[in-house]
Amino acid sequence: MTIATENLEVGQELPPVRKEISFEDMRLFSMWSNLNIHTDWESAKKAGLPAPIAQGLMSHAYLSEMLTQFFGKNWLQGGTLSIKFIGYTLPGDVITTRGIVREKVAEGSATRLNCDVWCESLSGEKTVVGTASALVD
Amino acid sequence: MPLRAKVEGPVMVFEEMEVGEEMPELRVVFDEDMQGRFLAGLKEENPWYSRESPWGGPITYHPLLDDAPMEATMHRYQYPFGFVHAVQETEFINPLPLGKPARITTKVVDKYEKRGRGYIVIESLIVDEDGLEIMRTRNHAMIEDERVREAAGLGLLHVPLSSAAKYNRGESGEDKS
């Protein structure tokens, strides 16, 4: 599963993760919540939304899935993720995670890869942007 | 994080929030059934979370813990974030074996204003029952007092920016979720 090594070049793209998000997915993710704009059409309507919107942390999880596949166990032991939420995701939307290695930095005897990461819709509109990093062997 | 308690505490007001304020400490444990439903919602099929991982048995799906800052805050305040979840910053330190209890400590670590709006930064440190650090995660959330009061009046937990014309102030590039 892990493909990241210190031999990777700057500019390397991370294998994307693609997700079609249903309303049921949103409800399962928010299983602990009361009725709100993520889980209830009426609440979304009250807020002036066309439909319930997915929690931003769903996109955070999709990015983490991509980064776990890319960095392997190093992701969970020393990985960092910093993201900004800039767009909505609605039921039926398809989100693709993307990433690219921006730089390689020596950290002790190891190498840390710093990456730009984002989520985008089918139309290419970014909904989440940020950075991620982890050590590579 | 499937813990959320409905509290009758005060509504969070940006001006009254103080850096250093600590939120209620939480103790959590995730079981296979709870985690399985969460994973289903994400269509995440990595066997690390259900069967075997590089650390032995299944581990807790770490995004379950990302919501810790909001979770802890909602044990003290109503409508704590008003709500615009602007930024999430997470440091993954160690995996947490599935079923192993964890403890979450949370505090306000910063507050700032940007484009006329107030933001608070709430950080949670998650450790397992032996004290091993698992994750540190921060949530930057926009607090707008007028919006919070409207949300309370509407019975909403969140009022996203630009969600309706009355909230849309025509600013481009603004945080939305």
Would you kindly provide a written description of the structure presented here, covering whatever features stand out?
- The complex is a heterodimer of chains A (137) and B (177).
- With 137 residues, chain A is of the alpha+beta class.
- Chain A has a single domain (18-136), classed as Hotdog Thioesterase (Thiol Ester Dehydrase, Chain A), CATH 3.10.129.10.
- Chain A has 4 helices and 5 strands.
- Chain A has helices at 23-29, 41-46, 56-71, 73-76; strands at residues 18-20, 80-85, 94-107, 110-120, 126-136.
- A 5-stranded antiparallel beta sheet of chain A has the order 1-3-4-5-2.
- Chain B is an alpha+beta fold and 177 residues long.
- The two termini of chain B are 18 Å apart.
- Chain B has a domain at 14-29 and 60-154: Thiol Ester Dehydrase, Chain A, CATH 3.10.129.10.
- In chain B, a hairpin with a 2-residue loop joins β3 (102-114) and β4.
- Chain B contains 3 helices and 5 strands, in the order βααββββα.
- Classes of the chains: A alpha+beta (137), B alpha+beta (177).
